[in-house]
Amino acid sequence: MGDHDSWYTLLMPEFWHALEHNAAEHLARDWQFMMFGATHFTLIHVAGAVVAFLFAIFLALRYRASLGDETRGVVPQRRFGLASMTDRFVGAVFNLSADVMGEEDAKRYLPLTGTLAIFIFLCNIQGLIPGMLPPTDTLKTNLGLALLVFLVYNISGLFRNGFSYLAHFLGPKIGGFPWLFPLFLPIEIVSHLARPVSLSLRLTGNIVADHKVVGVVAMMIPLLVPLPFLLLGTVVAIVQTLVFTLLTIIYIGLAVEHAEDH
What we know:
mainly alpha
C-alpha cells in the first residue's frame, strides 16, 4: 500500500475515487503560501474519524446496556468486555480530572474529557491496524480538536469568573491597578494562542513518526519483527491520548478556578 492507500481505496476504488473527486471540487485548496504547498487531497482521515466516532458510540451503548442489570453498574462485571473496558477507561479519566480540578468540576466536564480521550485513542490505535490510517496523523484533525479545547476552556473561564478571567491577562494588581499590563497582556495572549498549536503539533508529530516506523518495518520484514514496534506503537497511542487529555484537564482547571488576586 502507498501512503494514501487503505482498505477504503482498495475495497471500493470507484466509489472512493468519485467521492474524493466530488469533495475536492468544493473543499480542496488551490492556494499556496510558504509552508502550505501543494498537497494530496484525501478523505481517508475523515473516514477514519467517522469509524472512531461510530465505535465510540458503540462502546457507550454497550456500557449503558451493562447498567441495566440488577446491580445498576455498582458491582463490576466478572467478565472483562467492552463495557468493563469503557468503564475503566472513563474512570481513569475521571480520577485524573478529580485530582486536578476537584470532583465537582470533574463530573461537569467528564462528557468532554472522557469522550475526547476515547476518540483520540480510537484514532491513534488505527495506525497499528494494517490497511488503516490514523486520523490523528494529520494536522487538520488535531487542530480541530485543539481549537475545541481552546474554546471550551476560555468560555468556561468567562462563565465561571466573568471579567475576573479577563483581568488575569493583565497581570497582578499593584495598588489596585494592573500597572504591568503592557508586559503581561501580549505574553498571556501568545501563551494562550500557543496552546492549541502545541496540542495539535505534538499529537501529529508523535503519531506520524510512530505510524511511519511501524509501516517501514512491516514492509521490510513482515513476520514477527514488527511485533515489538506494534507494542511500542500501542504505548505511544496511550501516552499521546493521556498527554492531550491531561493538558485539556489542566487548561480547563486553570480557567475555572476562582481568580482571587483580581
